[in-house]
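User: Now give one protein:

AI:
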Amino acid sequence: MLVAVPSPGGLFMGIVTLIFGIIVMIFPKILKYLIGIYLIIVGLWAIIISL
């Protein structure tokens, strides 16, 4: 049985996602760069937490 444990990074990632969403609405051509940056940040965050 898996139990979801809230992480302190949840609020940070929510804020980052909100900001990226607003930027995409304003500048749609920048979407691919923001997705790449977001995936790198999430990947690094997961690696750092697992150490």
User: Anything to note?
Assistant: The chain has a mean pLDDT of 77. The radius of gyration is 13 Å. Helices lie at 9-26, 31-50.
